[in-house]
Design a protein that fits this description.
14% helix, Fumarylacetoacetate hydrolase, domain 2, alpha+beta, four-stranded antiparallel beta sheet, globular
Amino acid sequence: MKLICIGRNYAAHIEELQNERPAEPVVFIKPDSAVLPKEQDFYIPEFSNDVHYEVEVLVKIKKVGKHIATKFAHKYYDEISLGIDFTARDLQAKLKTKGLPWEKAKGFDGAAVIGEWMPKSNYKNLDKLRFSLIKNGEMAQQSDTSFMLWSIDELISHVSSYFMLKKGDILFTGTPSGVGKVEPNDYLEGILENDQLFAINVR
């Protein structure tokens, strides 16, 4: 299993981090060791003083595919979820300044929260899915997939032209604006439409 992540897929998030709008999806990969085990708290790593939450819609690939046309991409997944791409923002900034890869800031142990998987048939329109992150009972991030620069199917097509997709691979489709720092004792909840798909404590 590999975790294929998309950066800069929401215009408002690009603006809040003062990044350049990309001409094509920004792709990076987290190792499977980054997945936070179920029922386990998230522990802020010692090497960072500025870990940010980034809530994202997730897609689980159900079969092998390569060079998938956008019009056929919907045949490669049946399940949708919500997760968090935790990012050591201070470390990421240092790496970006030096032109180095982001893996240490994005792929550390526990940096990928994966919520409960739901059948995509539960939702009427995958291109207009409402989702949010609730932090300590207050709205932290809220958006819907209609604001993506590239849709789920477009992302699958793009990624599959570089990496063979395999059963069990997970696509993180990018985060909207509202990202922020986590602190010890924070409580984070992920809501997709009306479903709570994850709830974690920060330590």
